[in-house]
Records
---
Amino acid sequence: MSEEFYNGFAEYYHYHQASVSRDDIRFYTELCRSNGGPVLEVGCGTGRTLIPCAKAGAEVVGLDLSEDMLSFCRKTTGVENDDIRRRINLVKADMTNFDLKQKFQLITTPFRPFQHLATIEEQLACLSTIRKHLAPGGTFVLDIFDPDLDVLTDTDRELEFGEEPPFTLSDGREVTVTYRNPSVDPVMQVVHCEMIFSVNHSDGKMERLVQEFIMRYTFRWEAEHLLHRAGFRVRSVLGGYNGEPVGSGELIFIAERI
Ligand SMILES: C[S@@+](CC[C@H](N)C(=O)[O-])C[C@H]1O[C@@H](n2cnc3c(N)ncnc32)[C@H](O)[C@@H]1O
């Protein structure tokens, strides 16, 4: 998997429906308020949750591997006032191996960056690096999807699904998003995914851009074992950002250092 598989897609990613309508902002801003700072957001992307957390008063470090995502985040942060901008620090690094020489009261992983790690070795390297950065008594939030067996066992690999409502960018490009999962490896628990952007330019030119990436799916109890093995105690598990029970689509683990 290319290290920077989000490069070239930041703008599309930031404005597409699944990003814009995701209902996790209040969950993360409340966590910042209740835990205090500083906060580390691992895989911060374009700042979708990072910027609201800084606006809520948190000192936040956003870490991401993609220069394109980080520079979009810098641009978006640029319109905020000095106080908010001062609270945001962006770092380009790999979540499996970084050293920020700082401990955090809260470490989060909004919208599933952890699932881009393909192997258990990478997952453990990431969790152990995160643990080193977590202050005693601090909170770690692991945010992944709850694997849906219907989707994983669907054998129509050509099918494009999940068409989102079109959105228009400031230069007039109209973009429609669909998805395809060309293959699923049930042994490695890895889904090869495509996010397909059909772009209609204002001069009439049509373009089809395909972002390829992988998502490793992890079941609830596997994730609990993994967290325990990496030195975390799971305080609670949620199935959604409004306190839904497990089985509601998401898996959100609230953990602390053992
Ligand atoms: C689905 S996006 C989530 C972005 C943001 N957290 C949000 O909620 O919108 C996943 C992000 O993880 C980043 N990422 C993927 N692999 C990474 C790695 N090994 N280290 C750091 N960031 C990584 C990608 O560049 C991307 O910005």
Note: The chain has a mean pLDDT of 94.
---
Amino acid sequence: MNSKKLFDQAKKVIPSGVNSPVRYFEPYPFFVKKSQGSSIWDVDGKKYVDFCNGYGALLLGHTRKEIISAVSQQLKTGTLFCAPTEIEIELSKLIIGNFPSIDKVRLVNTGSEATMTAIRLARGYTKKKKIIKFEGCYHGAHDSVLVKAGSGAAHHGISISDGGLSEVSKHTLVVQYNNSKELEQVLKKNNDVAGVIVEPILANMGLILPGKNFLSEIRKITRRFHVPLIFDEVVTGFRVSPGGAQKYFGIKPDLTTLGKALGNGFVIAAVGGRKEIMNQLTPTGKVYQASTFAGNPISVSASIASIKTMNKLKNKIYPKLEQYCTLLSRAIDDMASDLKIPHQINFTGSMLQIFFTNKPVIDFRTSKNADAKKFQKMFRSLLKSGVFIAPSQFETVFLSDAHTKTDLNKTLDAYQTALKSVKN
Ligand SMILES: Cc1ncc(COP(=O)(O)O)c(C=O)c1O
């Protein structure tokens, strides 16, 4: 039981023993020794099929050879310069090539930094204050967006974080996901809105798909009110398609945030968009954003290798992910139906989630209605069978290109046992 021993030590020196709250689960999380492809091993030698996948970051799987090789090469010539490099231009061109809505892009380190910068840009550009977000969308751990957020905040019941300033959060207006009428009404009542931020596919309240016309409606409405629309594609960028959810749904936002699969396991994120907005960034403009590690050559080389691999193999990777995800989702759905367990399963592309409820899950409220205790029971049973999914109802199951048919078979056996345990 080395994980237990390590957790006891960790709790003494790290708050709650973890460096991000979503990693904690009862009675203690397993400690990781190594990973490869679709697998992750704990310090006790147990092997898991990994469907947490760095919360969606590892689209190409762990230790992907093209990326490890690019990073190994880069390590030989330096890790941090804090002066411009040619590879930053190469990466920016790759991002712009994949995302037609992006004229210019600035590299940052994390998704939180990307959304913080996007919001500051929207405020700087419009000279307005308020931001509209959708309940349950998670955009990172900063005050403007840590309001009725999903993911760990929803899991731990934090609607507004202690220590967050009400002077800041009062400028964040919250509307229901999949409710474009409500967005329109709020915009009619407020003429001080700087931007609307949305996860085009909501992957932080479990998985919630946008209704048929939701994204095109909010695009139309924000245009009509001259309010910049920010697509937070930290999860969906490169995952839903090489051009993200915006390419998949054919919508052009004004600003886009990217992270996770942009670096396939390396620390990198980005904010990009229309040049008249992006040019507000200092030193050309007066919207300040800065970082010591932004555009560091290690992350940039990893990202270039990731994007080139995704672009080169797109006709193989994305259809395979969709085929595997559909197969997994339909089989889990059938098993739960056979066991007469009330449930919903939402899936698309390489993402899925099950909810133990009778009603379709389309927003924060319907997701909250699902039986999260049953989900925890299922999670624990899956773990026991060697299948690792994120430990919360308010997260998503992520597939990677490294998953194999053997992984799927093992996973389906594990779900069968887990669903039986939920029934009892
Ligand atoms: C949609 C979305 N935006 C932003 C973030 C924040 O990214 P990071 O954890 O890299 O700060 C996340 C993290 O899960 C996310 O899912």
Note: The chain has a mean pLDDT of 97.
